[in-house]
Structure formats: structure tokens, C-alpha cells
Amino acid sequence: MASIRERIDASGKKSYHVQIRLKGFPPQTQTFDSKSIAKQWAQRVETELREGRYMPHAVAQRHTVKEMLETYRDRVLTPLKPKRIRDQGQQLQWWIDRIGRYSLADITPAIIGKYRDELLATTFGKIKPKKLAPATAVRYLAVLSHAFNVAVKEWEWLPESPMAKVKKPKVANGRVRYLTTDELGRLRTATALSENRYLAAVLEVAIATGMRYSEIMNLRWRDVLLDERGQCSLAVLEETKNGERRGVPLTGSGQSALDALRQAHMKTNDGRVNSGLLLFPSSTKKDKPVELRKSWETALKRAKIENFRFHDLRHTTASYLAMEGATGPEIAEVLGHKDLQMVKRYAHLSKAHITGVLSRMNQSRLGDPSDAPPSSATGRPAHHDKPDSGSD
After folding, report:
1. C-alpha span between 115 and 51 (Å, rounded)
2. Cβ(177)–Cβ(317) under 8 Å?
3. Residues 65, 68, 74, 78: is their CA dihedral positive or negative?
4. Looking at the record, which segments are called Disordered (predicted)?
5. Which of 67, 142, 281, 350 is the most buried (most CB within 10 A)?
6. What 8-state DSSP symbol labels residue 77?
């Protein structure tokens, strides 16, 4: 229970000392100039203590945002997500430079919102300056939000995250650029003529599976499983963007490309497969994948394909799946997405499939109009039989 005591100092000024004692909790005390505010604080703290949500203000006051972000980088980001340290490390440093001096007790949604707006106003590029894309700003906010969540839930440095009240920039639907049938044919021809002996195979694996560039280039032969005929049948991805292990079936052109690559590998290794080697190794850097950027750009120029990135091969796979009638969950499973939000961008490509589904429903449930009895002169269907008088 809370007790409030009125105190008067030597100058005659009144203050109100609040003490809360609840069994199982250390005493909580605070002094206020206003009795009404003292009562409000006592009610709030008692409720939070009973519900296990109370965090003393002094704890949040002892830690700065800089300390929180640096601790997050060292404890969470570096050991658990080392591949993201370059990008997210830069994002964390940006926030440290802007709000690192604030204590966790003093940081507010308004302060974060101010620097969110600064982030959105940031321009880059000297010749043609462009503002930072909203999607990039969202990523900056995401890493900050996760750091606050860890500080709240695991470290108990503050009672709640201020990010809950910070509005995120609106992001337009993601880019969907995919290869037409003609473009795919031209690109296949161009990669086949490339001086890089791996480029054509990488293209076929990418287009047949929808795997990310890093997932393809970091594949090792131990990650490729064979079927009963000795052909490549499954790529096991140990490290993916969302951190989950994933198996990707190998079929069609992707399977053929890896089968040929495996045969060539065995010829140079006395008929055996070195399971620890990369599928697409560099000839100059030990245990590193081959560099494809220059040869990829050359192939695009030869194929006369503009406004196309390697990552758009992943969009191409997803678009082809949608046009073949694959459902959202099916596309998400192929691409390795945790939710359906990312695959909604391909929904407009599956209209033919939706039409087919509606047509089948109309035929089976509503009846085909061509099967209806001929209409009479009144425009109503002619009925030659008596109405059904049954009770069904």
C-alpha cells in the first residue's frame, strides 16, 4: 500500500513524500510538489508492480542511447548476425551520432521522429542528388526499434520502447521487374558467350530456384543433395537472410546446370567430389566465390536488357510462379519469406489463375449458363415440369 506524507521545509514550501510497500517488492519512494501528482504516481506504480511492469526511472536514467546501441551491436548484432554488421553497423552509428547523448529516460517519440524526418531529407549523389528512399529509412528505424525491444525485454533498462509511437514512412509497393520470354532468351545467349565460365550456370540456378545471390554463391558441394539417379535434387541453405535453414528443390534447367557443373568438378578431382569446396569458386581468392559483377553487366549489355539487376532474377522466378497459378503461400515458401506481405506484389500477375478458380466455382456450384433451359418470350426460363413441392 502507498502512504503519502506532507512535508514542509524551512522556507514553508510543501512537498509530498510517497512510499509504496508491497510484499515481495522493494520499497519504492518518490517526492512531489503536488499531492494530486503524488497520488497518480502511487496508483500507477502500484498497478505496474502488481502486473510486473514497473521499471524504476533511475535505471533508465543510468543508461544512454549510445550505451544501449553499442551494447546491442556487441551482444546481438556481431555474434548472431555477423553478415549484417556492415549495413546495420552503419545504421546504428548514424543513430549514435544523432541521439546517443540522451539517457534512455529522456528519449521520446518526438525526438526520434525529428531525426526520422532528417533521415528522410538526406540526399546523396553529387551529379544527380536523390533523397533517401522511404524503404531505407524504414530499415534504419527497424534496427533502432529492435535495439530498444532488447533493452526492454532482456536487459530491463527501460519500461517500454518509445518506438511504438513513432510513425514509419510509407513505403510504396516493392519493385517488380522480371524478364520477358524474349529477354530471358537473349540473356541466356549472352551468358553462354561470357568469358566467366560460371555465369551461365549461376543464371540457370537463380531463375529455376529464386534463390538470392548470396545463397547461390555460398553453396558448397556438401549442401547439394542427390536423388537415387545421382542427379542434383536439393540445395540445403544453412544460412539465409531470415536466419532459418531452408531446402530448395533443384529441377529443370537449374538441375541440369548443376549436374554438368558436378561432372566437370569430378573430372578435375579424380572422379570425386570435394564436399567442402564452393560450387562457384574464385580462381584468385582462396575459399571465396567468383566475382560476377563485370561479366554480369557485360552480358546485360550484349543482351540489350536495361533497368535490370541480378536480384530481379528472384522477382522473375516469383512472377513466373504467379503466372502459372502458384498461391501466395507457395511463392513465399519457394522464396523463403516468413510472411505473405512480400509476395503481394506479384498478385496482379495471377489474374488468369484467379479467373480459372472463379470459373470452376461457377460451373460446379452455380451452374453453367449454357446448361440452363431456353428462355420464353417473357425473358424468364421456360418450366415444363411442375415446381418441386418437396420439403428439402
Report:
1. 34
2. no
3. negative
4. 361-392
5. 350
6. I
- 234 pairs with which residues across the strands? 225, 249
Query: What count of other Cβ atoms lies within 10 Å of the Cβ of residue 243?
Result: 9
Burial of 111 from C-beta contacts in 10 A (0-12 / 13-18 / 19+): middle
**SS3 per-residue string spanning 45-75:** HHHHHHHCCCCCHHHHHHCEHHHHHHHHHHH
Q: At what angle are helices 181-192 and 293-303 packed, to 10 degrees?
A: 130
Strands 28-32 and 224-226: unpaired
Q: Would strands 14-20 and 2-8 be described as parallel, antiparallel, or unpaired?
A: antiparallel
Distance from C-alpha of 89 to C-alpha of 348, rounded to nearest angstrom: 37
- pLDDT tens, 144-201? 999 999 999 898 888 889 999 999 988 765 667 889 999 999 999 999 999 999 999 9
Task: Find, among 104, 184, 183, the residue nearest to 150 by Cα.
Answer: 104
Q: Which structural domain, as residue segments, surrounds residue 214?
A: 181-350
Q: pLDDT (tens digit, 9 = 90+) per residue, 54-95? A: 556 667 778 899 999 999 998 888 776 666 677 788 899 999
Out of 28, 54, 80, pick the residue that ends a domain.
Answer: 54
Pairing of strands 28-32, 14-20: antiparallel
Cα(71)–Cα(55) distance, rounded to whole angstroms?
A: 20
H or E segment at 232? strand 232-237
- The pTM is what? 0.59
In a domain, 361, yes or no: no
**Closest-CA residue to 153 (of 242, 73, 53):** 53
